[in-house]
């Protein structure tokens, strides 16, 4: 008996389909469909609503939290200059977190039903439908849950008075990341560095998806040698 391979039906909710691809999932998810209209994820309307986020929700919700955190450290007898330096360090640490998550978690290879399903929800959907504007930034509910975990991590290493400023800087870095990511997909920059950064990121989506993990910069790709080869180098080889 010949067993027919599972085929994803793009006209039906996708989330609980993709797991059935098993070993073929990685190949499928890295064949992008370029369309501004994203697919339906769930049959349930409430779950479907929770997967969609307007880009402006990120700065609207989280920038006031950043300001509150910075003021909190100032009220704990830190000078504005000290808080500014702590926040900048937090932004810098975020760039490493951004790179690490993107490379080692978002691009983890999966092949079982539930692992494929989880990966699709986390990042696979973005590679399959890179121009889906409502599933590009991270949903606020998920961000809030992660904030609790990252707060505890920062508090473990920092003092009670420096934790708010450091975490606030990291949160600011996240806001910059998500807004930059959205702009790289849907903006039309005409000048560098934004134009070059857009080219760099779209190269990650459409040419070589296991390189170029930095979104806001290529710093950590350079440090950890995951810079994508140039087209010229590829031709010479």
UniProtKB/TrEMBL annotation:
Residue ranges annotated for the Fatty acid hydroxylase domain, each copy included: 88-226
Cellular location(s): Endoplasmic reticulum membrane
Recorded GO MF terms: fatty acid 2-hydroxylase activity; iron ion binding
Alphabetical UniProt keywords: Endoplasmic reticulum, Fatty acid biosynthesis, Fatty acid metabolism, Lipid biosynthesis, Lipid metabolism, Membrane, Metal-binding, Oxidoreductase, Transmembrane, Transmembrane helix, Zinc
Any GO BP annotation: fatty acid biosynthetic process
InterPro entries in alphabetical order: Fatty_acid_hydroxylase, Scs7
Membrane topology term: Multi-pass membrane protein
Co-factor(s): Zn(2+)
Cellular component GO terms held in the UniProt record: endoplasmic reticulum membrane
Major location (coarse): endoplasmic reticulum
Membrane-traversing stretches: 55-71, 83-101, 137-158
Family named by the database record: Belongs to the sterol desaturase family.
Protein name from the UniProt record: Fatty acid hydroxylase domain-containing protein
Source organism of this protein record: Leersia perrieri
């Amino acid at each position: 008996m010949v067993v027919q391979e599972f085929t994803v039906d793009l006209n039906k909710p996708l989330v609980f389909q993709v797991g059935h691809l098993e070993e073929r999932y990685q190949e499928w998810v890295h064949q992008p469909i370029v369309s501004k209209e994203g697919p339906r994820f769930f049959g349930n309307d409430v779950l479907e609503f929770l997967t969609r986020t307007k880009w402006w929700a990120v700065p609207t919700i989280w920038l006031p939290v950043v300001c509150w955190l910075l003021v909190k450290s100032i009220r704990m007898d830190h000078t504005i200059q000290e808080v500014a330096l702590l926040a900048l360090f937090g932004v810098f640490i975020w760039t490493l977190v951004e790179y690490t998550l993107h490379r080692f978690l978002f691009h983890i290879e999966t092949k079982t039903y539930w692992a494929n399903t989880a990966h699709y929800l986390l990042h696979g959907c973005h590679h399959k439908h890179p121009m889906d504007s409502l599933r590009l930034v991270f949903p606020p509910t998920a961000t809030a849950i992660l904030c609790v975990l990252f707060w505890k991590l920062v508090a473990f290493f920092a003092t009670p008075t420096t934790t708010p400023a450091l975490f606030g800087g990291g949160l600011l870095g996240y806001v910059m990341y998500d807004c930059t990511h959205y702009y790289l997909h849907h903006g039309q920059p005409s000048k560098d560095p934004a134009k070059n950064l857009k080219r760099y990121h779209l190269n990650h989506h459409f040419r070589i998806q296991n390189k170029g993990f930095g979104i806001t910069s290529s710093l950590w790709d350079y440090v950890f040698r995951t810079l994508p080869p140039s087209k010229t180098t590829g031709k010479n080889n």
